Amino acid sequence: YGDNATFNNSGTLVIARDGAVLQNYATVPTFNNTGSVVLGGSASIITLGWKFTQSATGILNLRIGGTNPATPQFDQINFGQPCTLGGRLAVTAVNGFVPVVGNTFKVMTWGARTGSFSAVTTPGLWMAKSYNSADLTLTSVATPATLAEWKAYFFPAGGAAALDGSDTDFDGVSTIVEYATGTDPTIAGLAGMPVPAVTPDNRMSLTFSRRLSNDVTYLVEGSPDLQTWSPVAQLLHGATVWTGPGTVTEVVAGGACTCKVVDAQTLAGPGRYLRLRILNP
Questions:
Q1: Are 176 and 239 in contact (CB under 8 A)?
Q2: Region 180-188: what's the mean pLDDT?
Q3: Do residues 103 and 67 make contact, with C-beta atoms less than 8 angstroms apart?
Q4: Rounded CA gap, 188 and 50, in Å?
């Protein structure tokens, strides 16, 4: 390709060598990826000398087979020119490697970047992603940082199983509630689900497990007749403080949170009911 050229990849492109590829010319060419890019070999370090743009349909595939960046044991791309990120970054563990919590992988560097991947899928791995000023670093974590990463872990193929209202293990608990309560959507069980009780001062309460991430809304509602519901307590998407007339007590231990919500109303009349709703967001 000559000066100011544009390379459009809409299929599957395999870059089958390490080192510097697609070097600069007098005028910098552009690499547009709407398809899939794969690095060759067992693990590669690639320096891309062209401007790079990945659209919403593009997929960039990287492998992690260890923690050593110099050997290398995981794929790395160094963008020598400005890059625009979009579409999906697909990260796969290879050679039987299982990272431990805290392992970091600087999989990309750049001088200038715009945009970010709409999805980072890491089947079998839980990874937090950090877009820093000059790099993208993945860190192995104990639990997924977001709902999207959680779904990518449990349902890498996507589809109906990954829908918020699905119930793949047939335990009566929807996917979005399994996420919000920190339970496994592939193993049937009711651990962590809301447990009702009556307090010594004659108020209804609900106790349940809660994830410490804040990317869904927790809403506890009360009703006298199972038809008309009003807020008791809510933790909105992005918030860190519960609001509402009810009383909330949380105990955090080992990265897990046990939440107890006590109704503001005392039991009186024909009855009182509480329910937990999870909203996305």
A1: no
A2: 89
A3: yes
A4: 50
Cα separation, 67 vs 101, in Å, equals 12
What is the C-alpha separation between 174 and 277, in angstroms, rounded?
11
**Residue 237 to residue 132: CA distance in whole angstroms:** 24
Of the chain, the end-to-end C-alpha distance in Å amounts to 46
Structural Rg of the chain based on CA atoms = 24
Phi, psi of 203 (to 5 degrees): -125, 145
Structure confidence at residue 22 as a pLDDT band (50, 70, 90): low
Q: What is the pTM of this model?
A: 0.64
The DSSP call for residue 124 is T
- Segment 119-147 shows an average pLDDT of 85
3-state secondary structure the chain: CCCCCEEEECCEEEECCCEEECCCCCCCCEEEECCEEEECCCCCEEEECCEEEECCCCEEEEEECCCCCCCCCECEEEECCCEEECCEEEEEECCCCCCCCCCEEEEEEECCEEECCCEEECCCCCEEEEECCCEEEEEECCCCCCHHHHHHHHCCCCHHHHCCCCCCCCCCCCHHHHHHCCCCCCCCCCCCCCEEEECCCCEEEEEEEECCCCCCEEEEEEECCCCCCEEEEEECCCCCCCECCCEEEEEEECCEEEEEEEEEEECCCCCCEEEEEEECC
Contact 102, 71 (CB under 8 A): no
Asked whether the predicted pLDDT for residue 12 surpasses 90, the reply is yes
pLDDT for position 281 = 82
Specify the pLDDT at position 153.
76
